[in-house]
Amino acid sequence: MASSRKSQPSPKLGKRIAVALSGGLDSVVLLDTVCKAQSKNKSSAVYVFHIHHGLQKQADDWLIFCEKLAKKYQVHFDFRLLHLAGEEQGNVEARARAERYEALADLCTEYGIEDLLLAHHQNDQAETTLLQLLRGAGVAGLAGMPASRELNAQGGKIILWRPLLGQSRKELEAYAKEHKLKWIEDPSNQDSQYRRNAIRKTIIPALEKIQPEAIANLARSAGLLGEAQGLLDRLAIQDGKHILLTNGIGHQPLLELAQKDLPAANNVLRYWLRVNGLTMPSQERLAAWWRDLQLVKAGAQLEWAHDESMIRLWRGVLQVEEVKAGEWVFKTIPSASKAPGFASQWIKDAQKNGLVTLKERSGSEKIQIKANTPRKTLKNLFQEGDVPPWQRQAPLLYINGDLIAVAGVGLSYPHLVHTGPRVRPEWQQKA
Ligand SMILES: Nc1ncnc2c1ncn2[C@@H]1O[C@H](COP(=O)(O)OP(=O)(O)OP(=O)(O)O)[C@@H](O)[C@H]1O
After folding, report:
1. In terms of domains, do 176 and 310 share one?
2. Protein residue with its CA nearest to atom 10 in ligand 1
3. How many Å apart are CA 343 and CA 427, to the nearest integer?
4. What is the value of pTM for the model shown?
5. How far is the CA of 99 from the centre of ligand 1 (A)?
6. Is the CB of 131 under 6 A from ligand 1?
7. Which GO biological process entries does UniProt record here (predicted)?
8. Which residues contact 87 (CB under 8 A, 6 or more apart)?
9. Do the beta carbons of residue 149 and residue 105 sit within 8 Å?
10. 27 in ligand 1 pocket by Cβ < 6 Å?
11. CATH classification at residue 44
């Protein structure tokens, strides 16, 4: 196999690394190269992770194939099962990808792995850039996939690496042939109803007839645009010095920048959306947002649905809220009250007797949340805690008829301290 681009970063050896194995040519080649490097080096332990999407009937066979391959190389293996069947066809690809990344991150967290290797290669990069071009994307989209990036994970930092980005599919095929590797073909790769597959099967071969280096050149453009995006990000941070706040984006300073320099303000807004994990809005949507931001009166509220989140303007700050139906977060409880075991038993007992209830706010509820303070109305506590109005709708948690917890505010102090319930951290998270 041709050597990868010298400038490409690589994960540190000497610790656990994970290979995401789909069973296709690319990841089979990646696993082979990683295991061969590891057998010489012996300094890092290889873990193989497979994600079963539950979408195609052959998926069980892929799982078995991947498990056997890991066994052959004598490396650790684990998998996750996703439940995507029933998703709308148009959504399914994006959904599968998002959930796959999440599941891979979970597996890495579970095994204490910081480096996750994926087998995207040069053709994938060229296809991504073409797809983005067809969508009318800007610099960030056209830059395609970075050789490495941090993956959002709850358990800590995970770096996702794409060590094969400098290799073409032809090179990977030649490597697989030379080393007599076996892999499985995903039938959806042959299916031209997916736009990416149409690009792969029709557009790229046509481009290669006109320009034999088309794939490498498209991937090179993506790399150059990646560099340009890095500079745009630095500009966004500079321009956003007084706009990008810890809890969102300042409305007035953003408008002031937009009046002076709209492209610079768009750049700050796009940067903010991206760091919040949101996709870029279409030109029409962006134009509508600017209209809203200009027309809204000082102190008024605004809300836009975007991706699966809500973007809200409240008290002069644009904030992102992920919409997760039925999930409310209670505020941190005093650390002194963390006595595991006791609380969970207390809650289990209450649940068994059917005494845990969720009720809607009626308006007159009061709760004491701190030592040596009086009981206060929820209205006061919401105001004091700057709890945005949309978070004030959370149901109230009662145990044995007593108000115990209010999302955004906290837990009933006397109940925590005197009557026993010492609440475990996980209980704070979801109700
Ligand atoms: N089911 C899976 N289980 C584990 N890893 C997978 C799986 N599917 C894909 N991968 C990993 O992701 C890499 C890229 O695969 P693929 O091109 O299908 O994914 P993608 O993330 O959807 O990319 P694209 O944006 O190109 O569609 C694979 O080479 C492999 O490393």
Report:
1. no
2. 22
3. 9
4. 0.76
5. 11
6. no
7. tRNA modification
8. 95
9. no
10. yes
11. 3.40.50.620
